[in-house]
Amino acid sequence: QVQVVESGGGLVQPGGSLRLSCAASGIIFNAYTMGWYRQAPGKQRELVATITNRGTTNYADSVKGRFTISRDNTKNAVYLQMNSLKPEDTAVYYCNAVLESSPYKYMHWGQGTQVTVSS
User: Fold this and answer.
1) What is the maximum span of the chain, computed from C-alpha positions, in angstroms?
2) pLDDT in the model for residue 38
3) d(CA 104, CA 16)
4) What are the 10-residue block averages of pLDDT along the chain, 119 residues in total?
5) Which region holds residue 37: left if phi is over 0, alpha if psi is between -120 and 50, else beta?
6) Which residues contact 10 (CB under 8 A, 6 or more apart)?
7) pLDDT at res. 44
8) Which of 2, 14, 87, 97 would you call most buried, defined as having the most Cβ atoms within 10 angstroms of its Cβ?
9) Can you name the residues that pair with 71 across neighbouring β-strands?
10) What integer pLDDT is reported at residue 102 of this predicted model?
C-alpha cells in the first residue's frame, strides 16, 4: 500500500521560514520524481518544485531563490525549505510522487498540509 504523508505546515509571519517534510512508503522511492504542489483557495493546484531521482531540481518562478527542495533516499523523504515567506504563499501544500515507465505513469499524492503566512 502506497502512503505519502506531509508534515511541517503551520502559521508563520511574513518573512519567516518553514520546512515541509514528506515521507513515502510502498514505492521504490529512489526511482520516483518527487514534487511539491500547492493550492490556494479559489485557485488551481500549481507546481512549486520538483526533484528527479538524480537530484535535478525545478522551481516555479514565484519561489525561485526562496524555496529549496531536497530529498533523502535513505529515509524515503523529500523536503521543502521555505524562506522569506509571503502572504501569497498561503496554500495547502501537497507532496507528489511520479514515475513514468512507458507506457505507464504512476502518480501518488499526499493529503496536504496547510501553510498560512500572516501577521
Assistant:
1) 48
2) 98
3) 40
4) 96 98 95 97 97 97 98 97 98 97 92 97
5) beta
6) 18, 114, 115, 116
7) 97
8) 97
9) 78
10) 85
